[in-house]
Amino acid sequence: MKHIVVRNTSQTPIYQQIYDQLASQIMNGDLKSDQLLPSIRTAAKELRVSIITIKKTWELLENQGLIYTIQGKGSYIKRHTQIDLDDKKIELVKDVFLEAISSVKSYNLSKEKLMEIISVVYDEVN
Amino acid sequence: MKHIVVRNTSQTPIYQQIYDQLASQIMNGDLKSDQLLPSIRTAAKELRVSIITIKKTWELLENQGLIYTIQGKGSYIKRHTQIDLDDKKIELVKDVFLEAISSVKSYNLSKEKLMEIISVVYDEVN
Amino acid sequence: MKHIVVRNTSQTPIYQQIYDQLASQIMNGDLKSDQLLPSIRTAAKELRVSIITIKKTWELLENQGLIYTIQGKGSYIKRHTQIDLDDKKIELVKDVFLEAISSVKSYNLSKEKLMEIISVVYDEVN
Amino acid sequence: MKHIVVRNTSQTPIYQQIYDQLASQIMNGDLKSDQLLPSIRTAAKELRVSIITIKKTWELLENQGLIYTIQGKGSYIKRHTQIDLDDKKIELVKDVFLEAISSVKSYNLSKEKLMEIISVVYDEVN
DNA sequence: GTGGTCTAGACCACT
DNA sequence: GTGGTCTAGACCACG
Q1: A28 and A51 within one domain
Q2: Are D60 and D19 spatial neighbours (Cβ–Cβ below 8 Å)?
Q3: Is there a single domain that holds both residue C105 and residue C88?
Q4: Deepest of B15, B103, D32, D91, by most Cβ within 10 A of its Cβ?
């Protein structure tokens, strides 16, 4: 479990931050099918958060169908094809931008103007 | 104060919903400079929300430099040129998409793919 | 919130016990659409369980689409037709018996024999 | 010890899964009276589960009066008439459906409706 | 007042 | 060792 960053100052809940990062790692294929996740206790210690917080993250991952858990053994990355993951990825991205576009809809910007702004922002981020 | 819709079931706080709608009305020029806003009590009654909620909205508008308040008289739309507003509008839109793009950055989508998805979502919304 | 019984001695988790009883009350129409549930704190006090336990129950109900929650206001019974509920009810019953029948499948009982046993048990329970 | 299948992903504990399958083999007469069961270590290796898990299963079988153990020699299928087994079988099936019917009792389904659902589920399973 | 999040600490079932 | 459940107690955002 590498490259997980938790910012206490962030607005988004800690369990959500960890979820987001693990989910993207799974969907990018950085974590392989049936790979064992660290135990709840280990992850909690590593990331310096409460066991309960990690448990909430694991529950979220399980509800989203990304991992499965076996009592007394641990949690594993769920088996899936890359196509499944790509579909899930696109759905998530669509949701994000559905909300973003809806929230600025009332500003009455043309599609061209909007796409231009987004393009600029994209280049600034990357 | 027309065309303000409040959805209790929405995830976004009520004060934020009202703010978003008033802010866009101001920036679109639907509300003119120095125009008097309704009193907090009146607005609360009209929209059937708590006075505290409206108070929070008015504070947000004032902090964002969109209205100004005179003790004992009420709140007014701040004077500004259309250019100021357009700049503000674009800044806000940029902020929205900065956050959206950042949140999906880790999915490693190409710019082309991302712009394509956004284009599709835009057409679905409109 | 009447007629909720919690048995600490039971094998099933407390949050599950409460969920089961509330879910059946909703599906039987004892709790009407948009009716306000007691607050988490109130319910916890009434049933003498931890706030967290009730919260887990409410989350379950929300995940199953039976209630919806508004921050700062409370949780409400979700709007639904009786047909929706009947469908949900039958699905749940099917799941229960799918597991039961599967677990005794290897005893090689005929369908008639099995149905006869179930009929007897039903009469004993009622 | 043939035809034992262990599914790690199942909700039911592994020791319970093995118990269920052995119990039904005994009651169906596939395993004869006084037949020697494999040693705990052998069984554990064969089924690729922990020795502790098999130990728990053997204890369960012994408690249920299905096997008996001789220190230093091993565990044997207990002697019994087919009638004893049939009675035991029916008792077990009754227990399973007692719990199932109890758990859906609050849905207020008529006996006819319930039997119909069960009939449908039975046909789906077989 | 409401729900949302986070914490530490405990006991249990399963492997 | 593992995860599952329950607890009390705290702080925050929202109305």
Answers
A1: yes
A2: yes
A3: yes
A4: B15
